[in-house]
Amino acid sequence: MKDSQDFIPYESIDQPEDPVAAAGQFHAFMDQRRSVREFSDKPVPREVIEHVIRAAGTAPSGANKQPWMFVAVQDPALKKEIRIAAEAEELEFYGRRASETWLKDLQPFGTDEHKPFLEIAPWLIVVFKCMKDISPETDSEQVYYVNESVGIAAGLLLAAIHHAGLVALTHTPSPMKFLGPILQRPEHERPYLLIPVGWPAEGCKVPDLHRKPLEEIMVVDRPGAAP
Q1: Cis peptide before 108, with omega less than 30 degrees from 0?
Q2: 105, burial (CB in 10 Å: exposed 0-12, middle 13-18, buried 19+)
Q3: DSSP-derived secondary structure letter, 216
Q4: Out of 15, 46, 104, 190, which residue is the most buried by the measure of CB atoms under 10 Å away?
Q5: Is the whole-model pTM more than 0.85?
Q6: Could you report the per-residue pLDDT of 3-15, keeping only the tens digit for each?
Q7: How many CA atoms does the CB half-sphere of 71 hold within 13 Å?
């Protein structure tokens, strides 16, 4: 049995003089982030991808099990193989699996089964969730709150990509089981997200969408509570 976890002093970041302004600046920066489907084939250094994945790996997780694996794909032949498999699933989705309501909701975005960005983007980051912990340092293979933990890590990954000046797309071909065999991942790793990463293409356009205002996504306390 392991000893109790050691604790160390918390090294706080430098506190901003105006936390309201700092929070507002971060919101304004993240509000510029968009999902992009038109990528340039301009190379992205491997070191950039390593740093954004390191940032994703700082996410909190259940019992600190860190149940994620990020597979960074740059090989053109491998990207082509992924595209072919993804488009086969997407053809089924758009042709048979998706409901009329779902297809109608997707219509404004102009999406279909064709996914050229899977080959054009210089990198694909495939996020896997790990259904057991095989780290040699741990006593148990059990993992906890896997979807929540990996979801937080994916959010940090997208923020880090945006911070690096790159663009990305959260692509979710359904089902994604084909990614495991193609990338030769072990059975306990399950595909979670497929994220093309790179620079925007020249003349890139994105849908003119708007985020919900604060009053539609936030409440304080419960209805009728005293101010």
Answers
A1: no
A2: exposed
A3: H
A4: 190
A5: yes
A6: 567 899 998 888 9
A7: 24
